[in-house]
Design goal:
Number of domains: 3
Largest sheet: 6 strands, antiparallel
Strand content: 15-25%
CATH class of the largest domain: Alpha Beta
Distance between the termini: 48 Å
Radius of gyration: 26 Å
CATH architecture of the largest domain: Alpha-Beta Complex
CATH topology of the largest domain: 2-enoyl-CoA Hydratase, Chain A, domain 1
Number of helices: 19
CATH superfamily of the largest domain: 2-enoyl-CoA Hydratase, Chain A, domain 1
Shape: globular
Structural class: alpha+beta
Length: 629
């Protein structure tokens, strides 16, 4: 638990990279664009401006270690008059309320620096949840604020103990460095940079007021989001760690250009293209290292045992992030076996895609072995491209509606799999957890709806049933607007049953709790979630949303091969469920795991994978039952 808290402390006070050159006009323009596309709100109103105040305050002081309640109370519980005035101000390009909060934050930083914290003992509660800091209330006075700061200090110290002497020292130093960066951004003597930071934070607060998933990204953050979606990067193929006096190379990706140059693990990078990096953040270093494919970069490095520093010239290339797209394994069973495919995200670039890689993996394993079942592991998969959710679902059904989306006007569009090409039509088990989200939920619930798969795992998935569009063009090689990009919620999606996983998540056929099963993870815990909704099922697809000529052209072929709702696997659900309960009841290691889980003890993600083991057992049971039919 304390290690998770330390990670929160490490990353909660920093915007990634530098700040774009935006002003009040750009803020209003971006927010107007967001509102025109949003599924629910078409302008900034009193509800949204109230949320924006809270967001702005939280962004400035996420640990509640600067403000006291009286500093910000009028914005925490704003009067109707204040909200009306703030909306009018915003519409005229006046950000005076935000400026006042920002000014108070500057004074709060100076106030904090005057406190003598070393003599105050911080009292750490017996139980710390992962949402502990979000549940904390604001300090009522300076005395309570001092105790809060001391509490956070002692919490940092206790958490750092788990990393050993050297690791703990570096972790604490990185926390201090990020805190210093955060304060410097607010107190910056460079008025231009301070204004950029102010408007960036205001824009983030306003964008995030629409719902839990609408947000603004700085150019650096937008670039990282594209990397997360595509699982590819343009750079030099190394992993780095901030060591305060430079950045240490901790790993070199296989076949990276760096591997064929004079850079080795353990080297400390102190400059990039002649620019010192000792006092910059790791996000800023990443910005310097990334660049156009084929371009050259000069790193100045220091190596243990070598006098002085020296330069290393490296050519930037494109790299696929290893183990970040798909992993495959094989479990022998009978005269063949079971394919296990773990998909980390739903991605697509000019060369690779989720659906293509899964299809190729199934084909290769089926040629090498005789497959009797497939386990598709979507745990921890936060989603990705909607088009790939449709394509992956299409690997396991003939043809039919995969997902329907409803926009702000109530118009429903249906997205279908027309390929008619099935990569696997046998027993299929999908494993999910509370971190499975978005595209993962589409695939899991769609295949569950059609009866093509049995879903097992945590009691629910994340519950993200809304869809967003991202303004960055991911078809190009990392082209990001200098003003930043935004993601906006355009509507809600529904699977073939007409249900949306929004808030509720995908409910598994068989519950097998995993390491996240007791954590407060899910859309229902998010800020400003959109409420759930249902529409008419689309198993019997009349194609009314398609143009007449297109509908006429494809109707015969499409209707002939449309996926029917199956009962083959659901017929055996009671037996499968009973078998699982018996196995888990007799598994003493799993019972101990559940005991540790319910007590809040920290459980390593590298511990025994009971969910996957049970998924394989269920697959074997299903194969036997189907063969006996």
């Amino acid at each position: 638990m304390f290690r998770r808290v330390l990670y929160f402390l490490l990353f909660c006070c920093s915007l990634e990279g530098g700040f774009p050159a935006i002003d009040g006009d750009i803020v209003c323009s971006k927010v107007s664009d967001i509102a025109s596309a949003h599924m629910k709100y078409d302008c900034i109103n009193e509800e949204l401006i109230s949320r924006a105040f809270l967001n702005f305050i939280d962004d400035l002081d996420p640990l509640k270690c600067y403000f006291i309640r009286s500093d910000i109370e009028r914005w925490l519980l704003p009067s109707s008059e204040l909200l009306r005035s703030a909306v009018l101000d915003y519409n005229s390009g006046d950000f005076s309320s935000f400026e006042e909060i920002f000014s108070i934050m500057s004074k709060a930083i100076e106030r904090r620096s005057s406190f003598a914290i070393d003599d105050i003992e911080g009292i750490i509660p017996e139980s710390l949840g992962s949402d502990f800091f979000h549940r904390l209330d604001w300090a009522d006075d300076e005395g309570a604020l001092c105790e809060r700061i001391a509490f956070v200090r002692d919490l940092e110290l206790r958490a750092a103990e788990g990393f050993g002497d050297e690791g703990g020292r570096r972790a604490l130093a990185r926390i201090a460095k990020r805190r210093r960066f955060h304060e410097d951004d607010i107190l910056n003597d460079n008025i231009v940079e301070r204004i950029r930071y102010f408007f960036t934070t205001v824009l983030k607060a306003l964008a995030s007021s629409f719902d839990a998933h609408t947000m603004y990204f700085t150019p650096a953050e937008a670039q990282q989001l594209l990397i997360d979606i595509q699982q590819r990067i343009f750079g030099i193929g190394v992993q780095i760690r901030d060591d305060l006096d430079g950045f240490t190379v901790t790993d070199i990706l296989d076949e990276a250009s760096a591997a064929f140059q004079d850079l080795v693990v353990g080297d400390r990078i102190v400059a990039v293209d002649g620019i010192s990096v000792v006092k910059i953040s790791i996000e800023e270093l990443a910005d310097l290292i990334r660049g156009e494919k084929g371009s050259e970069i000069i790193l100045t490095v220091v190596r243990d045992g070598v006098d002085g520093d020296f330069d290393v010239a490296i050519t930037r290339e494109e790299f696929i992030i290893p183990d970040a797209r798909i992993e495959t394994s094989f479990e022998p069973f009978g005269d063949g076996g079971i394919a296990v495919i773990k998909l980390h995200s739903f991605y697509q670039d000019p060369c690779f895609s989720s659906a293509g890689d899964i299809s190729a993996a199934i084909k290769e394993l089926n040629l090498s072995y005789k497959l009797s079942g497939v386990v598709l592991d979507l745990r921890g998969n936060g989603g990705g491209l909607l088009s790939q959710a449709i394509a992956v679902s299409g690997l396991f059904i003939t043809q039919g509606v995969v997902v329907s989306v409803k926009d702000s006007e109530g118009m429903i569009s249906r997205f279908r799999d027309f390929s008619g090409k099935v990569s696997w039509d046998g027993p299929l088990i999908i494993v999910t957890d509370r971190l499975s989200a978005s595209a993962s939920e589409i695939v899991a619930q769609t295949l569950q709806d059609y009866g093509r798969a049995i879903v097992i795992g945590d009691d629910h998935t994340l519950g993200k049933g809304t869809f967003q569009t991202f303004t960055a063009d991911d078809s190009q090689e990392g082209v990001i607007s200098a003003e930043g990009e935004y993601k906006v919620t355009r509507g809600m999606y529904y699977t073939a049953s007409g249900r949306s996983p929004q808030l509720t998540g995908v409910i598994p056929d068989i519950v097998v709790p995993g390491i996240f099963a007791m954590r407060p993870i899910g859309e229902k815990y998010a800020k400003y979630p959109i409420s759930n909704d249902i529409i008419v099922p689309s198993f019997d697809d009349d194609m009314e949303d398609l143009p007449f000529l297109q509908r006429k052209r494809i109707s015969k072929i499409y209707s002939y091969n449309i996926q029917k709702k199956l009962t083959t696997y659901t017929y055996h659900l009671a037996t499968l469920h009973n078998n699982t309960m018996k196995r888990l009841e007799n598994n003493n290691r799993y019972k101990m795991f559940l005991k540790d889980l319910s007590s809040g003890d920290s459980i390593s993600s590298g511990s025994e994978d009971f969910q996957l083991a049970e998924a394989l057992n269920i697959t074997k049971d299903l194969v036997v039952l189907c063969n006996a039919d």
